[in-house]
Amino acid sequence: MSTVPTDILGTIRAHGAIPRHIAIIMDGNGRWAQARDLPRPAGHQAGMAAVREVVEGGLAAGVEVLTLFAFSQENWRRPQAEIDALMHLLGDYIARETAELTSNSVQVHFLGDLDRLSPSARTAVQFLEEATAEGGALNLNLCVSYGARAEIVRAAQRLAAEVAGGKRTIESLDEKALARELYTAPWPDPDLLIRTSGEYRLSNFLLWQLAYAEFYVTPVLWPDFSRHHLYEAIRDYQQRDRRFGRVTV
Ligand code: IPE
Ligand code: IPE
Ligand code: MG
């Protein structure tokens, strides 16, 4: 018997404060596969269903931005066969989901060092971004070949080039100026960070943007994560006291 009320979406809606921006570290695919004596890529394949779940769940709840960590800069260090399988799945995801994403008015963006992708993967990524460019219901950011430190270094280099080119002064460099050079410039910072598979670390994800996010770690492995788990995380978030350094009176 479930211990969670079935109308959890109704409950979270009634309590207001739906996080505008949710970031998720989608972890545990390999362990999910291992537990079933399957090869690791089978776990990545199963994880695609969970992506669909959180997109649909996010849309239904009224989340504005969903930022998913799909492949890190450090993941390039994995065995080539696993990298190939992941890149293949990225193409599969785009081929299978484009129609659904456009009809749900989802706007997709890829964040990361996309120059490292194969030409065919890059073409597919551009295709999905262009096909969904008009979407206004939910922004779906897929972080691929993404590393937060590299993102910050890139932002610093872009600002330094502007200073060197006489386009801005050193005094004009502030937090806003740096944030504007990050991949996430168009969106507010995440309110809630979810990590699946029970790991308590950031693994170089959104280091700048998560400064005041609420963290939620669940033991659920990514392929088992459903919209119901997303709503449980939102329910937990709604019970937090976000102080931003101030005191609550
Ligand atoms: C997350 O699952 C997906 C990627 C990092 C690409 P993992 O592949 O890290 O799964 P575990 O952590 O080994 O279980
Ligand atoms: C983080 O997961 C990256 C993604 C979810 C894409 P990892 O499985 O790569 O992280 P570590 O190695 O456990 O820190
Ligand atoms: Mg992992």
Class computed from helices, strands and strand pairing: alpha/beta
**Could you give the count of β-strands?**
6
Give the topology string: H per helix, E per strand.
HEHHEHEHEHHEEH
Largest sheet strand order? 3-4-2-1-5-6
The percentage helix is 40-55%
How many domain regions?
1
For the residues shown, what is the average pLDDT?
Answer: 96
CATH topology: Undecaprenyl pyrophosphate synthetase
CATH homologous superfamily designation: Decaprenyl diphosphate synthase-like
Proportion of residues in β-strands:
5-15%
* Top-tier CATH class: Alpha Beta
Which cofactors or ions or other ligands sit in this model? 3-methylbut-3-enyl trihydrogen diphosphate, magnesium ion
Q: How many strands, which pairing sense, and closed or not: the largest β-sheet? A: 6 strands, parallel
Radius of gyration: 19 Å
Give the termini distance in whole angstroms.
Answer: 40 Å
Uncertain stretches of 5 or more adjacent residues: none
**What CATH architecture would you give?**
3-Layer(aba) Sandwich
Number of helices: 8
The general outline is globular
Tell me briefly what this model is.
This protein has 249 residues and is of the alpha/beta class. The protein has 8 helices and 6 strands, in the order αβααβαβαβααββα. A 6-stranded parallel beta sheet has the order 3-4-2-1-5-6, sandwiched between helices.
Describe, in plain words, how this protein is organized in 3D.
The chain is of the alpha/beta class and 249 residues long. The protein has one domain (20-145, 190-238): 3-Layer(aba) Sandwich (Undecaprenyl pyrophosphate synthetase). 43% of the residues lie in helices and 14% in strands. It contains eight helices and six strands, in the order H-E-H-H-E-H-E-H-E-H-H-E-E-H. It has a six-stranded parallel beta sheet, with helices on both faces. Helix 3 (40-61) packs parallel to helix 4 (80-103), helix 3 crosses helix 8 (227-238) and helix 4 (80-103) packs parallel to helix 5. The chain is globular, with a radius of gyration of 19 Å. The protein starts with 7 loop residues before the first helix and ends in an 11-residue tail after the last helix. The structure holds 3-methylbut-3-enyl trihydrogen diphosphate (2 copies) and magnesium ion. One 3-methylbut-3-enyl trihydrogen diphosphate is lined by residues 26-31, 71, 75, 86, 197, 222. Residues 26-31, 71, 75, 86, 197, 222 line the site of one 3-methylbut-3-enyl trihydrogen diphosphate.
